[in-house]
Design a protein that fits this description.
Layout: H1 20-23, H2 31-51
């Protein structure tokens, strides 16, 4: 089949559209808060492990 007989399809952006309003998080955490929360959970689990 020669290239002259092939037709080009229009390019589409389906699936590539970003919705900025929907992707915004309502609650934002600083990295320090996430680390502190993780440390608190780990300490709490260790305390409960050694108590029971």
């Amino acid at each position: 089949m020669s290239k002259k007989n092939q037709s080009m399809m229009p390019q589409s952006t389906a699936g590539l559209i970003r919705y900025f309003d929907e992707s915004e998080a309502k609650v934002k955490f600083k990295p320090e808060h996430v680390v502190a929360f993780s440390v608190v959970i780990i300490v709490l689990e260790l305390v409960l492990k050694f108590m029971f």
